[in-house]
Design goal:
With about 190 residues, the protein is of the alpha+beta class. The protein has 7 helices and 4 strands; from the N terminus they run αααβαβββααα. β1, α4 and β2 form a beta-alpha-beta unit.
């Protein structure tokens, strides 16, 4: 799906009454967290700032590329990451960006596991013939270190969620852009 369809899908979940939701959004925790993600997602779309470095890197893409984002509205990391990927892709008409739900066919996530898990979001950069050039995700390396550390400490899920949320708020998309800048440079050679 394209961004407009993904955004509408996300919005429809948020606007549908909790009593009318289907799995996994019929679980009040998923539903409430998705509503928070909706706010975060749209906040970054409005306030996120792209760096001069990522703008310059994206301008160097002269051949068509197909970017695929594997995501879900319930994913907290995606709420912070996907808006930046969308804004970056909009900079260059050679980038065709599409979205795929992790938990729906064609289940592409099965080819892009992170340590055996279906962690999202995932960005897959492909050439015009859909040959994979690079894969990134599910979160910036420094954010992953926070996550891994809390997991090792056996922190509660709520503690982990709050720590990651705080990390993203302080970082303001800088790490995502820096890592994608390196990824784009590696693709371009």
């Amino acid at each position: 799906m394209d961004f407009i369809n993904y955004h509408s899908y996300f919005e429809n979940i948020v606007k549908t009454d909790a009593t009318e939701q289907v799995a996994p959004y019929n679980d009040v925790l998923y539903y409430d967290y998705t509503r928070l993600n909706w706010s975060r997602f749209n906040r970054w779309l409005k306030t996120g700032k792209l760096t001069d470095e990522i703008i310059a890197s994206v301008a160097k893409i002269t051949e068509p590329q197909n970017w695929l984002v594997i995501t879900e509205p319930w994913c907290g990391d995606a709420a912070h990451v996907v808006p930046f990927i969308e804004m970056i892709a909009r900079l260059n008409p050679n980038i065709h960006l599409s979205y795929e739900l992790r938990d729906a066919e064609p289940f592409s996530i099965d080819r892009y596991l992170t340590n055996g898990s279906k962690s999202i979001p995932k960005l897959v950069i492909r050439d015009a013939t859909d040959k994979d050039l690079a894969v990134w995700g599910p979160r910036p390396a420094d954010c992953q270190k926070v996550y891994d550390s809390l997991l090792a400490e056996k922190a509660s899920f709520d503690t982990i969620k709050l720590a990651l949320q705080n990390w993203y708020n302080v970082n303001k998309g800088q790490a995502i852009q820096a890592e994608l800048n390196i990824l784009i440079a590696s693709v371009l050679g």
